[in-house]
Specification:
With about 250 residues, this protein is mainly alpha-helical. It has one domain. About 80% of the residues lie in helices and about 0% in strands. Helix 6 runs parallel beside helix 8 and helix 7 runs antiparallel to helix 8. The longest helix is centred in the C-terminal third of the chain and has 55 residues. The radius of gyration is 26 Å and the shape is elongated.
């Protein structure tokens, strides 16, 4: 689990609820339907069903932290390169490789696939993964844009009802509740949930893409029969200065 996501989300709602004395005063079913259900319908209208369901599928990446550290990937690729250099590509078969993208590349090496095909196949998979993750981030970003707009629509509905029934004091309260609560619901949904999720998915997609690009370079290096001793420095270009120094010290 990604601790930052859990702590940030629970902390934000905790601070919001700490300022509320009577929670029942902040619950209004029509406002909830206008903002939450209404914004979901608009997002679905803006996208295809496959894109909408795909966004739900990538949502789990926000709460999971399964990305490999690039330093660990480099160490494993160097180890695999050393095995291939000593015992040949066939010796890579059966090696335990947790990363599925790296495992696919190694499997193609073992099968003796042409380097051009290996490169094009891995790059196509990289592009498809980036597109899928970017689409999920766009869905939540769109939801974050729509939620405040639906809140404003609810506010206008409440104001119209209130102004149309000024002669009936009993109707002013419920109408004002819709007017105010829809704005609050829209702001919370957008700024506490949807936009942070979109940003998190976008960041994780970039990190995963960088890892996969590192793997492609490593796979092609092994295919060319390069010296494993220089592979660590070659792939170190994907790391920041501190991580690169740490990797050099470990090497």
């Amino acid at each position: 689990m990604d601790i930052a996501t859990i702590v940030g989300l629970l902390g934000a709602f905790g601070l919001i609820f700490s300022a509320i004395d009577d929670i029942n005063a902040f619950i209004d079913v029509p406002s909830i339907l206008i903002v939450f259900a209404g914004s979901i319908m608009v997002v679905m209208f803006r996208s295809s069903l496959g894109e909408f369901l795909g966004a739900v599928g990538v949502l789990g990446k926000t709460f999971k932290n399964k990305l490999d550290q690039p330093e660990a990937l480099i160490e494993q690729i160097v180890e695999l390169a050393t095995i291939a250099r000593k015992d040949g590509m066939i010796a890579l078969e059966g090696q335990e490789i947790p990363n599925p993208f790296l495992a696919k590349g190694i499997s193609m090496l073992v099968d003796g696939t042409d380097p051009t095909i290996i490169k094009s196949s891995l790059q196509r998979e990289l592009s498809a993964t980036k597109m899928r993750h970017a689409m999920g981030a766009k869905i939540f970003s769109a939801w974050g844009e729509i939620a405040p707009a639906m809140g404003m629509i609810g506010t206008l509905i409440g104001l119209v009802q209130m102004l149309g029934n000024m002669g009936d004091p009993k109707s002013i309260g419920p109408a004002m509740a819709i007017a105010l609560l829809t704005t609050m619901y829209g702001a919370i949904l957008a700024n506490v949930i949807c936009l942070p999720i979109a940003m998190k998915l976008s960041n994780q997609a970039d990190l995963e893409a960088a890892n996969n690009e590192l793997i492609i370079e490593g796979i092609l290096f092994i295919q060319d029969g390069g010296n494993p001793r220089v592979l660590s420095d070659f792939l170190g270009a994907f790391l920041g200065p501190k991580a690169r120094a740490k990797l050099a010290a470990a090497g």
